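Standup notes, structure subgroup. Blocker cleared on the manganese (II) ion input:
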Amino acid sequence: MPASAESTARFDEKGYDVIGDVHGCATELTVLLDSLGYRVHPSSGAHEHPTRQAVFVGDLVDRGPAQLQVLRIVKGMVDAGSAQIVMGNHEFNAVAYDTPSPDGGFLRAHTKKNSRQHQAFLDQVDGDIRAEFLDWFTTLPLWLDLGGLRVVHACWHEPSMRVVEEVLGSNRFTSRDQFVRATAKGDPLYEAVEVLLKGPEIDLVGHGQQPYFDKDGHGRSRARVAWWDDDATTLRTLAVMGTTFKTVDGEPYPLLPDAEVEAGEQSYSYRGDVPVFYGHYWREGRPQRGVDFTERTACVDFSAVKSGALVAYRWSGEREIREDHYVNVG
Ligand SMILES: [Mn+2]
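Run returned:
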């Protein structure tokens, strides 16, 4: 990142630095915080900026090599008031994995697949320290509305937020008991948390289309929804279809019909006038207009733990996303 006098001056003003999925990349995080002008404060011991606050989009843990160090840095900042954070699906899953189910087992089953995905965390964050951080994860807000900007891990969707507020009384869990409903397929709270933390999906088979097979050969009936596209109202524009997707016969998957879907499914498209920042989607390369960012949405997850970049967006009051406010892009 160029450290010109101009760019330093521009970010002396108040604002928020929205930081993407860290996934245990402590070295990348300390380098990024330093380049953004956050310094370890002698009394709090936390990274602080004289005029700005950091906002983390969640997914501090899993996969990466230094998860405990990341947790200490970020929780230290949150406790010192120099950062805020929303819950990612990996924090949600960590709590569910650790919470016994009333039916026996755990709220997130200890299957081979789930355990393998979570093993690095279990190895690196152990004992009382793990319990302490899981308690912290439990009560992280699922979204933040900071006035001029909004932050959520995967998708800003007001109908889902209303469900969460109705069931939990606010934008966060207050106890692990509430994770029982949040992990019960079919429960409105489960569906709402799925949308906010993992992003909405659309059922292609339910719309009369054939399933697709992804690049790993997994057959799927549901596609991700391009909720960041405010124009998307049809199956073709809403469903995110990879160019490598195949039919069951191994043919390239055909173009979906350009037919309007029902209102509930159209409701995912973000049409608010306040910028939304999100992570989750493992984007690659430099931020591309139209997908990674639009006028009012900006993804900050550029796959730091998969040899991408730990990206931040420096928001300073603008109503429209500016490409040049992304920093540390690959
Ligand atoms: Mn992530």
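Discussed briefly. Residues 21, 23, 59, 88, 279-280, 301 surround manganese (II) ion (CB under 6 Å).
Next: hand off to the docking folks.
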